[in-house]
Amino acid sequence: MRQGWRWFGPKAGVSLDNVRQAGATDIVSALHDVPIGEAWTTAQVQERKSMIESTPDGRSQLTWSVVESIPIPDAVKRTGGMAKNEIAAWIASMEALAANDIKVICYNFMPVVDWCRTELDYVTPTGSTAMRFDHNMFAVFDLHILQRKGAASEYSQADQEIAAELYAAMGAQEIADLTRNIASALPGSTTEPLTIPAFRDKLEAYSGIDANKLRQHLIEFLLAVTPVADDLGVKLTLHPDDPPRPLFGLPRIASTEADYAALFEAVPSPANGMCYCTGSLGVRADNDLPAIARRFADRIHFAHLRATTREGDGRTFHEAAHLEGDVDMVAVLRELLAEDRKRDKSRSIIFRSDHGHRMLDDLNKEVTPGYPAIGRLRGLAELRGIIHALDPQALV
């Protein structure tokens, strides 16, 4: 297995030497400055690749191995194969990456909002902070700030009463913070920041699109792009929904084992793969993570390894330390290692410690939410320890 690290570029505050010091060898990055829907050029990709891989004397080599992500435009999610221009631009970006020998692409198909959290600095018992999704605060946003049409029908009477009490006690800054956290696009998001009116308009544009329709649109997209990916030797890895359940009345279609099985059956191309994210899938108690890894082992080309802790009835959760929470990381890594042993080294599974607590010196500086250096360093070290214990020869 190969140790990855998500890097948001030279302005992100984490240097490539920091990545080397963490022990990672493979960079996970993207051209975040290119507008969603615009094709990446070979020259743009080459420039970023050169920045990553031009190794100073005496430094260890880094390789840009995974793209996370090429955003899928909203038009594709809403209209599927009819969004021909947007799909053509996506294919052009994939071709530019393949021309630079970057052959693993992560993407998601979450409509309107990408990964979603209500709190970015939830204080843990250690004094470190973590990201959190609070169901009650999400209801506050949906019912009282967004004021989504028909939203009340999706919440119990008890939920509505709690949300009303919480909203009544909130000040202007608390409302602004909650709105920013949900609507303004978290780091690495493949959706655009939205004002409240624009948010409502986006939701309205999805009127009438249920899970079956959204799944069909994803299948149409894959039928268009996987033949090219097969020819290029590219592996596409679909990231799970985060959280793995419907939000804002919108369907989500990559939340369970059955969801992935349906997509692999509909598009059996070897290019149609999975980003195996234990944090996203692990939010659902009915997802058996080792079983999912075992069933789809040959489809896993990229893994996000992190843990979450479900609170109360499970609708609220927070990011746990990598070896804590509701994910049996030892069992997960045992399955991934079993698959990795079957592969040629060039096809080894790339994993990264995903998210991480804000801790130590990172508490005193501006950090990218979800991606503090020290918390991810701790996570990678812990994951590396498990791998060494299970198979001392496993790390490439």
UniProtKB/TrEMBL annotation:
Matches recorded under SUPFAM superfamilies: Xylose isomerase-like (SSF51658)
Involved pathway(s): Carbohydrate metabolism; pentose and glucuronate interconversion
Entry-linked Gene3D superfamilies: Divalent-metal-dependent TIM barrel enzymes
E.C. designation(s): 4.2.1.8
GO biological process per UniProt: D-glucuronate catabolic process
Sample GO molecular function, one term: mannonate dehydratase activity
Cofactor: Fe(2+); Mn(2+)
Alphabetical list of Pfam families matching this protein: UxuA
Keyword Lyase attached: yes
Catalytic activity: D-mannonate = 2-dehydro-3-deoxy-D-gluconate + H2O
Keywords recorded for this protein, A-Z: Iron, Lyase, Manganese
Keyword Cell membrane: no
Alphabetized InterPro entries for the sequence: Man_deHydtase, Xyl_isomerase-like_sf
Entries under HAMAP family matching the protein: UxuA (MF_00106)
Protein family (similarity comment): Belongs to the mannonate dehydratase family.
Function as written in the Swiss-Prot or TrEMBL entry: Catalyzes the dehydration of D-mannonate.
PANTHER family with a match to the protein in the record: MANNONATE DEHYDRATASE (PTHR30387)
Name by which UniProt lists this protein: Mannonate dehydratase
Originating species: Phyllobacterium pellucidum
